[in-house]
Amino acid sequence: MRRHELSDEEWALVGPLLPRQARGGRWNDHRTTLGGMLWILRTGAPWRDLPERFGPWQSVYHRFSRWRRDGTIDRIVKALRIRLDREGKIDWDLWCVDGTSVRASRSAAGASKKSAKTSPKTTRWAAREADGGRSSTWSLTVAELPSPPASPRGRRTSRRSSGG
Known about the structure:
This protein is mainly alpha-helical. It has helices at residues 8-14, 30-43, 57-70, 72-86, and strands at 125-129, 140-144.
């Protein structure tokens, strides 16, 4: 078994949750296609860099998009979450928020503070609950908060030189 590919035990958990082909042309093998999806998700590579052993990248991408839209991926995640919970491997009291793309101010890293006139505009954000039942984990959706207007509408607060 190669790196990033499903073992037989993992496939036995996930395989029955995948849709069966009803009509149309012959699909690529689900196991190979799912392996390609996992390769992309684990490596972070662009779809076009998918190794040929997983089939054409367009086929893997379109199946991923279809499964995401029709809820197949959600069913897989839910089934795996139920199994992990049953085995006691999920700590429901643990909260984890990924701050990878959260911008900190310059002074947070120890840089000197600059005057308010030269500071870049700060966008204000708030988090709200996306959805969630009693037993679900929380997902956060970010929404921009409107900033109060800095000056009355239609009036400029700075003068620009009109020289040409």
